[in-house]
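Support request from a user on the community tier.

User writes: "When I paste my C-alpha cells into the form, the page sometimes reloads and wipes my input. The last time it worked, I copied everything first. Here is what I submitted, just in case something in the input itself triggers the reload:"
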C-alpha cells in the first residue's frame, strides 16, 4: 500500500482494490473516527479504486496510527528473531548468516 512498485514489484492498489483486511486495515478501522471509518468501508474493496482514492486510504492509515503500529510490530519481531539467532544452538553458522539476511530483506523496505 505504501511501497514503491518498482522496488516491491507489486501494485500499491491491488490490496486496497481487493479489500484485503490486513493487520494495517484492522488497526485503522479500530482506531478510525466515524468519518474515517465510513471512508475506509466505502473505498476498501472497490475494484475501480483510483490513485486519489488510495491516497485517502493511505492518509487514514497514517493518521489513525495504524501504519506506525504495524511498522513497530515488524521491527519488534525482527529484533526478536535476530536476538534468537544470536543465541541459537544447533544451527550452522552459515545458516544463521542466511537467516539474518532473510530477516533483513523481509522487513526492510526501500522507499
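"...and here is what came back when it finally went through:"
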Amino acid at each position: 500500500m505504501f511501497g514503491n512498485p518498482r522496488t516491491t514489484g507489486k501494485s500499491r492498489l491491488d490490496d486496497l482494490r481487493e479489500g484485503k483486511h490486513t493487520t494495517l486495515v484492522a488497526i485503522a478501522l479500530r482506531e478510525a473516527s466515524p468519518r474515517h471509518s465510513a471512508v475506509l468501508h466505502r473505498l476498501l474493496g472497490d475494484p475501480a479504486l483510483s490513485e486519489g482514492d488510495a491516497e485517502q486510504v493511505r492518509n487514514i492509515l497514517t493518521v489513525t496510527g495504524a501504519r506506525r503500529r504495524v511498522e513497530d510490530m515488524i521491527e519488534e519481531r525482527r529484533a526478536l528473531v535476530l536476538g534468537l539467532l544470536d543465541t541459537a544452538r544447533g544451527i550452522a553458522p552459515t545458516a544463521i548468516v542466511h537467516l539474518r539476511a532473510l530477516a533483513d530483506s523481509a522487513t526492510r523496505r526501500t522507499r
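Agent notes: The reload is a front-end session timeout and is unrelated to the input. The radius of gyration is 17 Å. Residues 75 and 81 are 10 Å apart (CA to CA). Escalated to web team.
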